[in-house]
Amino acid sequence: MKISTFLTDGETKSLDFSLESLRNLDLSLPTLNFSHHFSEQSFLEDAERTEAVITWRFEECWYHQFPQLKTVYTPAAGHEWIKRDPLGQVSIIHGTFHGTILAESLIGALLFMNRRMPAMIKNHRDRNWDRNLQSQTRLLKDQTLIIIGYGNIARTCTSALRPMVARIIGVKRSSDGEGTFQTSQLPNLLPHADHVVLLLPGTTETDRFMNSDLLALMKNGSYIYNFGRGNSLLAEDLLPAMEYLGGAFLDVTEEEPLPPHSALWSHENIFITPHSSCICDDYSKLYIDELIHNLTL
Question: Per DSSP, which regions of 82-192 are E strands?
């Protein structure tokens, strides 16, 4: 089988697959014919005989240039960068390894916000020895966490968090009979949550999902986290809610990169990371290992 790879990312080092990391595919799967590309031009010039591609992005207009194409593999968990085949003949297989990485990021964010570390950073910056800032914090073992968008990544997060948190509630569009709740039940669930985590995909169905009405149901002093996509929680809804929320941790925002003039940057109880919750040195290895497994099935 002829397989072309195109896994370059000029912005983020850990997402830019090196030739050395890709060589593991050649060594582990010697019966397959891999062709590694580091430019769009080279990738497209090799299209005619390619039966499968491994890539960060694939445009709709490219499909007609790949007459033998059967499968598109991508590390991405989100569906934004791989456009669907207009003829519906090419399958798309997304990476499923992100849960382990994101679980660590979520644990870090929960501890960071719950222990009021944004205030402690300011305390440090001001050289202020205030030992009372954390006096009203509560242990996670006595708190309730809701995860909205309860898929594979959320389940991995739940497994990691279960020893630390009293109660974890999974919420998804339709219940699967495994103890999860439907999104329609959120009005009854949100008033009891200490932490609300969004892991929603970036689709039109999730546009402004966590709107002002739902935010108003969260209890005073609770925290919200967005590790899904920025379209589900907008600044115009979040900022007024910060009058009663304990804080917000945003790994994704409605506009990326977030402009320097955004009011989100300046709010003392909002902490922002640049869509980096799954960025780590292990990223390429985890995906290559998953690929090797998938390609040997």
Answer: 91-94, 144-148, 167-172, 181-182
Any idea what the Cα angle at residue 39 is, between residues 37 and 41, rounded to 5°?
A: 105
Backbone angles phi, psi at 40, to 5 degrees: -60, -40
> What does the DSSP assignment read for 136-151?
T---GGG-EEEEES-S
- What is the separation of C-alpha 267 from the centre of its chain, rounded to a whole number of angstroms? 23
Distance, in Å, from the CA atom of 179 to the CA atom of 129, rounded to the nearest integer, reads 45
- Count of beta carbons in the 10 Å neighbourhood of residue 239: 15
- For residue 102, CA distances in Å to 45, 119, 219, 240, 277 come to 36, 24, 26, 28, 6
Alpha-carbon distance of 282 to 265, in angstroms, equals 29
pLDDT above 80 (res 177) = no
- Return the residue matching tokens 């920025």: 230
pLDDT per residue over 87-143, tens digit each? 999 999 999 999 999 999 999 999 999 999 999 999 999 999 999 999 999 999 999
Q: How far apart are CA 86 and CA 189, in angstroms?
A: 40
The DSSP call for residue 21 is H
Q: Which sequence spans correspond to the domains of the chain? A: 2-95+281-295, 98-254
DSSP state of 154: H
Provide CB contacts within 8 A for 192, sequence distance 6+.
144, 219
The reported pTM is 0.95
Superfamily (CATH) of domain 2-95+281-295: NAD(P)-binding Rossmann-like Domain (3.40.50.720)
For residue 253, CA distances in Å to 66, 115, 204, 264 come to 35, 23, 15, 9
What's the Rg (C-alpha) of the chain? 21
Domain 98-254 has CATH 3.40.50.1000: no
